[in-house]
Amino acid sequence: MSEINSPQQIVDYVDHAALNKAALPFSRLLVMAMLGGAFIGLGGLLAIVVTGGSTELLASNPGLAKLLFGALFPLGFIAVVLTGADLFTSNCATQVVSLWRKNLKPVQVLRVWCVSYSGNFVGACLAAWAFTHMTQLFPAGQPSTQYLISVAEHKLANPFMVSFMRGVLANLLVCIATWQGYSAKDTLGRMLGIWFPVMAFVALGMEHSIANMFFIPAAMLAGLDITWGHFFTANLLPVTLGNIVGGAVFVGLPYAWIYAKSQKPSAVTK
């Protein structure tokens, strides 16, 4: 037996999983998405606390500090995939496979995207409130608090097109991580397949809409003085659009076209 699933098997499995997700009741999909947003927040929390507390490393070797941040952040993505939670950015690619194969209608894809995005937003914001504000992990004046606020300020300062293109590359790598995770037939293999691309997009400073739903509200709760409207227009809108393009156009559509026809029921190990 092969130790990995073939690309054809992965795309067939993605198609099957997308159909199952589209058939879920609203309440189940929403709760799965809330869990996904919260898990991403936990990965972000770990990365901020550890990297933000490494003040000497930040001052002496910022490149290595970025690698440290990227190395810790995938905790949330691994949890999403291995526990069956839901993530909007992955759906940008997976739902398009079924759409291309005409197994789903556009309105069904939009429903999954909208419910997933909304649930991720609620879950990430709840994580920011419950796990940063209520735990008092970021008191005023602490290095980790200053680092959290500086990360958020940097994300909000980028021009629209810069945030958009960073969103494209971020979700291209996230969806590659999803594909690679499905390629493995054991837990460790899936974890490694997910970890490398996610680590790369974070260390490169790319933009992920669901992660930003945690980082920026957490920074607001820690003292960053901005409005929700500014958050939406300066960061979340361009990053979300970029994530859609990165997942749907650069991963979902090419693989749906390359492996256009399903061969047989997928043998992918979940």
- If helices are DSSP runs of H or I spanning 4 or more residues, what is the number of helices? 12
CATH architecture: Up-down Bundle
Question: Over all CA atoms, what is the radius of gyration?
Answer: 18 Å
- The sequence of SSEs as H and E is HHHHHHHHHHHH
Question: In CATH terms, what is the fold-level topology?
Answer: Glycerol uptake facilitator protein
Instruction: Provide the number of structural domains.
Output: 1
Whole-number average pLDDT? Answer: 95
Q: How many runs of DSSP E, i.e. beta strands?
A: 0
Shape: globular
Low-confidence stretches: none
Structure class: mainly alpha
CATH class: Mainly Alpha
State the fourth-level CATH superfamily: Glycerol uptake facilitator protein
Can you summarize this structure?
It is found in: Membrane. The protein has 270 residues and is mainly α.
Q: How would you describe the overall organization of this protein?
A:
By secondary structure, the chain is an all-alpha fold. It has a single domain, classed as Glycerol uptake facilitator protein (Up-down Bundle). Helices cover 78% and strands 0% of the residues. The chain is built from 12 helices and no strands. Helix 6 crosses helix 9 (160-183) and helix 8 (143-157) packs across helix 11. It is globular, with a radius of gyration of 18 Å. The mean pLDDT is 95. It is a multi-pass membrane protein. It holds the Pfam family Form_Nir_trans. Belongs to the FNT transporter (TC 1.A.16) family.
